[in-house]
Amino acid sequence: MKIVIIGLLVTIFAIHESQQTYAEYAEYIDYLDQIHQIKTKPIEDFTTLSKKFDDLEKKFEDLRKTVTAVKTAELPKFVKIGSKYYYIDHAEEVNWFVAVDKCRAMDANLAGLQSMEELKAVSDKLTERDYWLDINDLGKKGVYQTLSSGQNAGFLNWHDGEPNNGSGNERCVVLRKIRSKYAMNDEKCEIKHHFICQKNQLE
């Protein structure tokens, strides 16, 4: 009886071992098959992948050119007048504070003309009646300074009778054309005018 039981146990163990061995063998065969598929994968797959990459690279380059073109088109056009660069706005009218922000957004400042030569050179490019300048007396009434430097304005050229603080609160300076001549006039900062931005050099 004991011999029969032992025989059955040996048989069961042998079957179990053979099943485990077969499972391992099947797994090994599957692994070899995968390696074989990788080794024999058609070279056309690589060519196709390479072409897709080239196409993607071309699309990226086209997109880069498009973005650059759009940015360039949106950049304000600064022109050299004398030794400095100016952006003269002819399209919109804003108050003095907005004009300051718009120039700063261009890495520039409102123009602070420093000589009669600069005034005449810039005036030749103007087409509208009024343009905001960097000059103001917001710090102390009657003391005109440039916002960009915080120093007293080195050059002032007023129209006759100006500055007169006519409305009682004219604290910003505009370049105004009267009888075909551009000169400075004090003005309420909230009034909307065109503006001139200035850079000493381009990037």
Task: Record keyword descriptors for this entry.
203 residues, alpha+beta, Mannose-Binding Protein A, Chain A, 8-stranded mixed sheet, 8 strands, 43% helix
Question: How would you portray this structure in words?
Answer:
- This protein is α+β, with helices and mostly antiparallel strands.
- The protein folds into 2 domains: 2-74; 79-199, Mannose-Binding Protein A, subunit A (Mannose-Binding Protein A, Chain A, Roll).
- Helix content is 43%, strand content 22%.
- It contains 4 helices and 8 strands.
- The protein has helices at residues 2-39, 43-74, 96-105, 116-123, and strands spanning 79-81, 84-88, 109-110, 130-140, 143-146, 172-178, 181-187, 194-199.
- Strands 1, 2, 3, 4, 5, 6, 7 and 8 form an 8-stranded mixed sheet that branches.
- A hairpin with a 2-residue loop joins strand 6 (172-178) and strand 7 (181-187).
- The longest helix is centred in the first third of the chain and has 38 residues, at 2-39.
- Residues 1-18 and 67-73 have low confidence and may be disordered.
